[in-house]
Amino acid sequence: MSTRTITSVLACAVAGALQLSQPRLASAEPPCTGVLDGHVVDALTHQPVAGATVGAGDRAPQRTDASGHFLVTGLCPGELSLTVERPEYALDERTVVITGATSVEVELVHLGEVIAIEDEAPEPENMRATAVVTGEALERTRGRAFAEAVAAVPGVSLLRSGSSLAKPIIRGQYGRRLALLVDGVRHRAQEWGLDHAPEVDPFVAGKVSVVRGAAGVQYGPDAVGGALVVEPPPLLRAPGLTAEGHLVGTSNGLGGTVAGRVRGAPAAVPGLAWMVEGTARRTASPVTPDYPLDNTGSREWSAGASLGYRTATFEHRVAYRRYQAQLGVCRCLRIESIDDFYAQLDREKPLGVEHYEREFSIERPYQGIAHDLALARSQWKGWSLGTVTATYAFQHDLRREYDVVRQATTGAQFNFRLSTHDADLALDHRSIHLSDHWHLRGRTGVVATVQTHRYTGLPLVPDHDALALGAYAIERLVGHDLELEVGARYDVLTRTVALDRQDFLRMVRSDQLAPGACEDDSADPVRCGSVFHALSASLGALARITRQASVKLDLTTTSRPPSPDEQYLNGTSPTLPVYGLGAPALRPETTYAASLTGAVATESLAAEASVYGSRVDDYIYFAPAIGPDGNPIFDVLIRGTFPRFTTRATDATFWGADGGVEWTPVRALTLAAQASLVRGRDEDTGGYLAFVPADRVRATLTARAPDGAGLHDTFVSVTGTFVAAQTRYDPRADLAPPPDAYFLLGAEAGTKIRTGDHLLSIALSGTNLTNARYRDYTSLLRYFADEPGWQVLLRLSFHMSPPPT
Amino acid sequence: MFRTSTIALLLASSAVSLLAACGDDGDDHGAHELEVITTVILTFTPDGGGAPIVAEFDDPDGDGGDPPVVDPIRLAADTTYAVTVGFENRLENPPEDIGAEVRDEGDEHQVFFTGTAVDGPASDQPAAPLAHAYADVDAEGLPIGLASEVTTQAGTGQLTITLRHLPPINGAATKTAELAAQVRDGGFAAIGGETDAQVTFDVTVAAP
């Protein structure tokens, strides 16, 4: 390899010297319309090399993009000298003969260790519409809850509950149909509950990727709606110390957040690196334009540490994180009886609102949550076949929910304890060089999960034990302007629930379970087993039409086994005044999804738009039970009469479009706009599906001031968000009609001050500045009270010796 | 190399055992925490003596499963009865007496008598077969409703017994003297608090 390079360097140098003086002499040359389309890769690994400096003839140097591409236009036929250089690589000089459209692949030879290259090789571009929130964009969300940090991505909206936290909705899918990965590990918690926000501290993230659309092969069979991938900032590669601190204050709910992270790598022990981080957050109840949302304060803290050790061929890391929260639930929720609930709907304000306070103290009802994640990961890069990564993670999720009870009662009414061991082994094989322009890269892996769930409390969900095994392979053919990806995955899940005999008999009596459905129905508890097989497959294509424009197409099918609550739910819901019954005999639901994404990126314009559609066979849906007479079924319980909701399989269709555009006509001004649209239909009844977000658009105008007076990146922005009323709903599938459309105005101003190695950034932002009274269709609060009014947030972020980016 | 992997593994496993050690703080397994009520018991004792008449709303397997069993109430006309309302959780053995807890926290609870069979503080139907009056008070001098008195006249109708939990909001009492009148005028939607039990009986009052 290196001999060849040296020879070509010599040849090019001579040829280049000859060529330099030639073009301008000739007067009768053909028109100069030639194009050189180049592709720079690492000579050994065939990974693209981004950020390499390309010199072509006497043109101004340019840099390769994230996929290693560059483009030179307006070339005259003939020879062109080309230089490609990047630190840590040997300079590549060559002469290219231009005849019309010419393409070239440049293989750069690395000077140092192999591992350094792979660290810098970018992840392959996801075939689905993917938005990455990182750097400045992520910093601007500091101080907000996790779901709100990704809410600015087109296609994402929020499912709010009666507490201060929300869960994200991606293209109409949420909870058990989204995969959340933290530090490469699937987050395991009680994501099925409408009021269970993800137990993740947003400060953990150095980068959040939002994958919109079914991604079962990559992330597991329940990534039906997409995935949220939270990656902490990397450990330091070179000896040093870096620290960051954030201080955020909010006016509504009144409170603040303090967060810090220190990363270090001692010079005395090369290869060793560590990180320690922590966050504490406390807020009082927020206030709507007219009254406080009593008892919606929050207390959260999280802490984590990570330790890594690298050698030439190995990389090991251990990490531990704990997140703990106490979240008050609005006193305005009236879910104890359906009559009280309906009566509340007719009220302008909650009953007893004159006693509501914007307080810090948290009383019943509230949720107490603790989530622990411990992980160990080892990577071996010394194998000729590729890189092997092994990960083991243990997660413990404890959730307690405290109802309003008589004083004599002190404990929680719902106690969920979920312990999960995850292990996975993956091989990223070395890029296989098929030709100068075609390489094959890919990943193969196996995963195993062992899970136990222990529940005590009011009748709701049973204990269960589960074992899941999976195997997958994804291969990508990477060409010059075209990439093709094919993936397949198989998962098997065995689940055994242990039903208290009393609950088992109750389920038999309510016709949920056939008497012989479980092994030994005279035992206590009665054990009922299920085995599910799930197959996922995907086919993706990415075409770079020009250097500025690309198109992606993804076809995916994913089968998702029912979750334990969908099978065995039995009790009045802690979030809505309904009596819910699961269906133990449910089979996996199968999604067939297609997504087409187009993107344009020029110096002044960046735009991305997607259209998508999916058909879900046996879509598992929780909806009102309808009797043989066509009327809803009600159950007489001791607390009155409750509407019965059941989980059942139907066929569903989802489709929609989302996208955004960002236009920077001059450096001082950026205009950004985005829109999201999603539709969901129940094909069996012809009705609309519940909780599908309403159409929304958002526009932001940002003005930037020139740097000076010690300040830089100074900006002011104004944002308007319009959310339409949801007109596509099925009145039988919901307890109340959707609320009206609303418009929210926001603004933000910020600047940065750099002193030596330190960076201080200050931002002041306001939301709902017109103090609009509104309710949102996908907020559980909408049945009871308005959303919070105007809020001001002040953020100070301090970065000490930021690592070079 | 092996040494590093071993250390990594040790660190991970010690973290795991740490978790296991600190996880078990204060889980409440006692059914007492759940405040389940399976049974409402009405006992009518005639003023002039005689055998008490007992009617139950009983859902022994709790929510779901078998539907609840409701006894009809048959009373003699032109009689005054002392009425007690009892609440039990029969999922426990022996059954848990929830009524005693309600009495202990009488200033946060009230039992209401409503329905077509009732005329009284919470129901304005002068021709109804039962004329209801509260016969007990809490520490604040407000009625609880565990003990009442009804005077009968011939007729039929429905009697709904509602146990309302009325915890204070930020220290302000929500149990007030006007509650029964508010229920009479505007139903339960007009008052705060939460329904702990709400059951309906068929009532027949006939000449003895």
Low-confidence stretches of chain B: 1-30
Instruction: Give me the Rg of chain B, rounded.
Output: 24 Å
Distance between the first and last residues' Cα of chain A: 31 Å
Q: What is the total tally of β strands of chain A?
A: 40
Q: Rg of chain A from C-alpha positions? A: 29 Å
What structural category do the secondary elements of chain A indicate?
A: mainly beta
Q: Could you give the distance between the termini of chain B?
A: 95 Å
Summarize the structure.
The complex is a heterodimer of chains A (805) and B (208). With 805 residues, chain A is mainly beta.
Description:
The complex is a heterodimer of chains A (805) and B (208). With 805 residues, chain A is mainly beta. Chain A contains eight helices and 40 strands. In chain A, the strands form five sheets. Chain A has a 22-stranded antiparallel barrel. The longest helix of chain A is centred in the first third of the chain and has 19 residues, at 2-20. Mean pLDDT of chain A is 89; it is low at 1-29 and 114-120. In chain B, strands 1, 2, 3, 5, 6, 8, 9 and 10 form an eight-stranded mixed sheet that branches. A four-stranded mixed sheet of chain B has the order 4-12-11-7, with no helix packed on it. Chain B has one domain (5-206). In chain B, a hairpin with a 6-residue loop joins strand 5 and strand 6. The model of chain B is unreliable at 1-30 (pLDDT under 50). In chain B, 17% of the residues lie in helices and 36% in strands. The radius of gyration of chain B is 24 Å and the shape is globular. Chain B is an alpha+beta fold and 208 residues long. Chain B contains three helices and twelve strands. The longest helix of chain B has 21 residues, at 2-22. At the A-B interface, strand 20, helix 6, strand 21, strand 22 and helix 7 of A face helix 1, helix 2 and strand 12 of B.
